[in-house]
Amino acid sequence: SIKIAKKINLEIINCDSLQMYQKYDIGTAKITLEEAQGIKHHLLDFLAPGTNYSIYHFQKDARKKIEETPLPLFVGGSGLYLKSALFDYELTPKSLFLPPTSLPAIENMIDFIKQKDPQLIANLDLKNPRRILSAYQDLLAGTLRSQKNKKHNPLYSSLIFYLDIDRQILKKRVILRLEQMLKQGFIEEVNQIQTHFPNANFNIIGYREIKALLKGKITLDQAKTLIIQKTMQYAKRQKTWFKNQIKPIILDALSP
């Protein structure tokens, strides 16, 4: 991304939902000032850990940056964030949502969805509480998700590339990167975040396992095995999502 940005005089808009947060540096492989080589980055490292910042906020901020930036280049693997910015994706502000203590049981949410938006139920993953909650909250805001049919309509003229890599090579790189992260102080990074920001999000691959390690729930070897396993599973889901939802131009990440 840096080579492309320097060659065409672009500014980069970060599209990694974790790299927006400060302190999450080693575990997210966040670009350093030296690596950035003077290329301007937007929406990167600007939120304190634990800050309530959703995809709804990102959509508004990213579109504002698009208007302000002559030639923006989105970089990152948070696909839904990218789609929310570039496509006519309708989102509901979190301020309209009920606080967690006021939410009904999952079963009651499902019954409510069946009554209000029966067409949605057939395609809704009823084993995924987050999907159920999101659909329920949309209905509270007066939105029928089954009628959201504009999310595939692009708002901007853009080229979207997905860098693909053989899974065996990817796994070797994941293992190598994890060892490098540990040498750079990943365990201490997690310890510092949980010490100074106890309400920060740790439900993240790598951070979740290292936190469990620090609590003595698992060994270092177990943590490493879980991180590698979860990362590979995420990479598979990520590739499938991009191919189905955005249909990018797929390039070999190792080609010259």
From TrEMBL:
Which cofactors go with this protein?
A: Mg(2+)
Question: Reaction catalysed by this chain?
Answer: adenosine(37) in tRNA + dimethylallyl diphosphate = N(6)-dimethylallyladenosine(37) in tRNA + diphosphate
Question: Does the keyword field hold Nucleus?
Answer: no
- Write the Enzyme Commission number(s) for this entry: 2.5.1.75
What Gene Ontology molecular-function terms does this entry list? Answer: ATP binding; tRNA dimethylallyltransferase activity
Which UniProt keyword terms apply here?
ATP-binding, Magnesium, Nucleotide-binding, Transferase, tRNA processing
Q: GO biological process annotations for this chain's record?
A: tRNA modification
Which InterPro entries does the record match to this protein?
A: Dimethylallyltransferase, IPT, P-loop_NTPase
Claim: Nucleotide-binding is one of the keywords in the record: yes
> What Pfam families does this protein map onto?
IPPT
Concerning its family, UniProt says:
Belongs to the IPP transferase family.
Function recorded in the entry: Catalyzes the transfer of a dimethylallyl group onto the adenine at position 37 in tRNAs that read codons beginning with uridine, leading to the formation of N6-(dimethylallyl)adenosine (i(6)A).
The record's listing under PANTHER family reads: TRNA DIMETHYLALLYLTRANSFERASE (PTHR11088:SF60)
Q: Name the HAMAP family for this protein.
A: IPP_trans
Q: What is this protein called?
A: tRNA dimethylallyltransferase
What is the protein's species of origin? Answer: Chinaberry witches'-broom phytoplasma
Q: What is the lineage of its organism?
A: Bacteria, Bacillati, Mycoplasmatota, Mollicutes, Acholeplasmatales
Q: What gene, per UniProt, encodes this protein?
A: ipt
